[in-house]
Amino acid sequence: MPELFHITTRDAWAAAVAGGDHRPASLDDEGFVHLSYRDQVVTTADRFYRGETDLVLLSIDPAVLVATLVVEDSYGHGKFPHLYGPLNLDAVTAVVDFPPDATGGFSLPMS
Hints:
three-stranded antiparallel sheet
């Protein structure tokens, strides 16, 4: 399975590191953690995080995930990976700053 990505705030990531795993609000609200494939990251960021300046992008190795990963249709926007449980920190292979450009839009910070 290809590398996965998750967008979160610096504060949420710091809390995850302190707490041992990442539990974004979507886990309680929707039952899963929203993830993206590489080609979905920019569209997702532009749609949901436009102009936010405190973001980081997590790169995730799906082979190391503990919770169940399911690829599902996302309300007509394509198939997205959803993690049905907290994100275990050892699955995160990189954490990079994910700032918007001058227009508030995003581009991938990593190749």
